[in-house]
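I am writing to request your help with a piece of structural work I have in hand. A protein sequence and the structure tokens that stand for its backbone fold form the material at issue. Please examine both parts with care and let me know of anything in them that strikes you as inconsistent. The record follows directly beneath this note.
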Amino acid sequence: MSELLTGDFYQFESLLADDERRMLLRVREFLNDKVVPIANDCWVRAEFPIDLVKGYAELGVAGLALPECPGSKPSGLLSGFLALEMAHADPSMATFFGVHTGLAMGSIAACGSPEQRERWLPAMSRMEQIGAFALTEPEGGSDVAGGMRTTACREGDTWVLDGAKRWIGNGTFADLIVVWAKDVEDGQVKGFVVEKGTPGFTATKIENKMALRTVQNADITLRGCRVPESHRLAGASSFRDTAKILRRTRSGVAWQAVGIMIAAYEIALRYAGEREQFGRPIAAFQLVQDLLVKMLGNATACLDMVVRLARMQDDGVYRDEHSALAKAYCTSRMREVVGWARELLAGNGIILDYDIARFVADAEAIYSYEGTREINTLIVGRAVTGHGAFV
């Protein structure tokens, strides 16, 4: 087997079983061969490399950690390392994959009926159908649970959806969009699978982003969008069910943050060994080594945290506050690491040729999505004090 990532200083990857590590290395090879060489170009053009979806599908890792997905082998640790590996290569493509597998497939796996899981998950696991997850709204991000404006009105065996969603990853090209809407009858949030091309559904690409530019985020409009009762997720009857999905995906975002930290550290370490000033590599200077060790310390501490979280997930004992703490802490440390890496590269750190500029920009989106640091802090604060402080 190939060497561990340089930034995996305590060799956590060695905790994987042999067959899991072989799978991870196969994914690493694909990412290094196909994704890394085009990442900057796709980012500059803000275009998604749709031709790579077939390659992702051939890896056979979509839905891997979903027990409800046919043929899957649930492993929180392997799933986490896959998220790390993808973010290490390109945070945009990691986000694409996380939206499809964690949010869209995860919603159907956790909240769909057996018939619904059988209907959609096999094709999604083969990536023949790509998913999106529509929760955030133009006027509702952190408060979307209580302030959701998208409505669902039942008319016989049909539901009529009206409203708008924003920042929907994969939204411009997804085949299946899991839309969350408030039932006008009981006021509860419910989930619906809307198929591409459904009348009344439109998706418009969000332009002029400074982060995750390869991700095709969309503004979605629902005007009299009619979906059958068979497309209402049978197990989604309130926002508590939505939160079950976010618990799982927030841990995935923490893993992504670790992947970004390791990538930034490795870029900085390589640069420090090559860049010479005052007649020797800058790696020989004390202040440069200080930056490198601080980067490595953050990445190692956060990797330890998410490995333990994965073990708790596999044991079925992790809760919302566990994922929330990992997401809040790891993304905060990630911001420090990419900043230090940019500092080490000095002027070269602000151009894409040296890669770190893309990671600095993309880290800002990772820091904010799947719950801001403030919201995740309040989730943990409520758990440890017994007092909710959201309003």
